[in-house]
């Protein structure tokens, strides 16, 4: 993108020759002769750079500097000053001007200063953009959900972020475990330090320990230099152990030691290394079952389970689906420069889909629909075929017992919604005791 420069200079000869020189460098230039025109231009457009004379009739260069900094603080301002007004230039620098150039100036010197100022402006803008992206990706409000289940999660997140405890996040694939882990980290006192993610399921058993704990030079064939592990990299920050249920037993023992003593040994070293890390782990496995099966260490399970956070599957928080559709539609419309919306029938259809892939699946469906949209409104026919097909397909594969259980569960959800979560009234309508309802809520793992 071409840089745009506002040039404010009342001396015609300087204005015209400098504007020509800047244009021949490939910049877009708006030359103006007085301060009032400059102020009007600043309020109407964003410039990459402002170059202004200090002494101008009516409105001074200092006033232009002040307005420019207020309107857009990332736009650098270069002041041009005659020999007699150096004091003003110094004052302008103090106020935040990028630099000043004394008139008469050498053109090359001016172009070099312009280049430096624009480099700074590019970096500043990029920095602002990245920061925005980071906070919009990880900031609390961007975990979307307004149903009871998610409200309870937000309240817990708030508390967890203020502690330094180990957290275990449980939930099916795509329910937002990684998003939640990042949010806890960024909201915590370690937020400005690194968060290192390890996908325990993706690392082959023979590499996992060297990845986690690093190795010394010569620890094994091919270890030509010392390499820090992920725990070293996460020092003073957070380590996110994703899919922890897939860790081999031997590595589990070492993780337990880090959790208890904050120490570990690098491969090929007998010396202990101490780290200061917060551990957040996640899994979509039933860890309790893995413990019973002897696949997961019981002591590690209890050590991790200090604060468990269970993310409910999307099908159990139907009420969040329209909100998520809205947010994802906005996101992809922004990205693709489109203006697509979902019809009420499509939203209804999505609300009735069981989303085995949870929020990730919904996100992918929205992206796909917007990318392939031939019209502005997405109707049920435009949704992926499996959405209408899966229910029938799923039903045919289920046993009678499964179908009954599913119907029972959905009915309980509906009635609880109807009674605004009042369990006594729901039990009355359902014709069961409060105790039975409680057992069924637990049995179906309803996050209400
Ligand atoms: N409540 C939510 N609001 C907004 N976006 C969400 C929400 N939950 C999940 N997402 C988005 O859905 C996608 C999947 O989430 P994430 O990767 O955190 O899930 P996960 O549970 O860690 O999945 P897996 O177990 O497969 O690693 C991400 O793009 C995430 O930003």
Automatic annotation (TrEMBL):
Superkingdom field: Bacteria
Start and end residues of each Sigma-54 factor interaction domain: 143-371
SUPFAM superfamilies: CheY-like, Homeodomain-like, P-loop containing nucleoside triphosphate hydrolases
GO terms of molecular function: ATP binding; sequence-specific DNA binding
Annotated positions of the 4-aspartylphosphate modification: 53
Keyword entries, A-Z: ATP-binding, DNA-binding, Nucleotide-binding, Phosphoprotein, Transcription, Transcription regulation, Two-component regulatory system
Span of domain Response regulatory: 4-118
InterPro entries: AAA+_ATPase, AAA_lid_NorR, CheY-like_superfamily, Homeodomain-like_sf, HTH_Fis, P-loop_NTPase, Sig_transdc_resp-reg_receiver, Sigma_54_int
One example of a Gene Ontology biological process annotation: phosphorelay signal transduction system
Entry keyword annotation includes DNA-binding: yes
Name the UniProt record assigns to this protein: Two-component system, NtrC family, response regulator AtoC
Native organism: Desulfopila aestuarii DSM 18488
């Amino acid at each position: 993108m071409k840089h745009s420069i506002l040039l404010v200079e009342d001396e015609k000869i300087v204005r015209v020759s400098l504007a020509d020189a800047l244009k021949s460098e490939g910049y877009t230039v708006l030359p103006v002769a007085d301060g009032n025109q400059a102020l009007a231009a600043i309020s109407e457009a964003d410039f990459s750079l402002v170059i202004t004379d200090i002494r101008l009739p009516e409105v001074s260069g200092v006033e232009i500097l002040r307005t420019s900094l207020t309107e857009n603080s990332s736009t650098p301002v270069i002041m041009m000053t005659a020999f007699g007004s150096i004091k003003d230039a110094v004052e302008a620098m103090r106020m935040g001007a990028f630099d000043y150039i004394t008139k008469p100036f050498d053109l090359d010197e001016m172009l070099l200063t312009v280049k430096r100022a624009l480099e700074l402006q590019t970096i500043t803008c990029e920095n602002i953009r990245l920061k925005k992206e980071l906070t919009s990706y990880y900031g609390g409000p961007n975990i979307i959900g307004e149903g009871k289940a998610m409200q309870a999660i937000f309240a817990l997140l708030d508390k967890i972020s203020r502690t330094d405890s180990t957290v275990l996040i449980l939930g099916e694939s795509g329910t937002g475990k990684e998003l939640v882990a990042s949010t806890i980290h960024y909201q915590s006192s370690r937020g400005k330090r690194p968060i290192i993610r390890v996908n325990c399921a993706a690392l082959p058993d023979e590499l996992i320990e060297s990845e986690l704990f690093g190795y010394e030079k010569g620890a094994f064939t091919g270890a030509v230099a010392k390499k820090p592990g992920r725990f070293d990299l996460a020092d003073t920050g957070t380590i996110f152990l994703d899919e922890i249920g897939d860790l081999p037993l031997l590595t589990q023992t070492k993780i337990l030691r880090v959790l208890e003593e904050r120490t570990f040994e690098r491969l090929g070293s007998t010396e202990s290394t101490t780290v200061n890390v917060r551990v957040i782990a996640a899994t979509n496995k039933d860890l309790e079952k893995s413990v019973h099966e002897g696949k997961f260490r019981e002591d590690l399970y209890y050590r991790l389970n200090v604060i468990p956070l269970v993310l409910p599957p999307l099908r159990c928080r139907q009420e969040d689906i329209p909100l998520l559709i809205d947010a994802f539609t906005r996101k992809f419309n922004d990205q693709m420069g489109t203006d697509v919306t979902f019809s009420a029938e499509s939203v209804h259809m999505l609300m009735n889909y069981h989303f085995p892939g949870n929020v990730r699946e919904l996100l992918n469906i929205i992206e796909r629909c917007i990318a392939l949209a031939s019209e502005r409104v997405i109707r049920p026919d435009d949704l992926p075929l499996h959405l209408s097909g899966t229910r029938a397909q799923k039903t045919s594969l289920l046993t009678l017992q499964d179908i009954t259980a599913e119907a029972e569960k959905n009915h309980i959800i509906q009635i609880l919604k109807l009674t605004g979560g009042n369990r006594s009234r729901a039990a009355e309508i359902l014709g069961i005791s409060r105790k039975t309802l409680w057992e069924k809520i637990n049995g179906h793992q309803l996050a209400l």
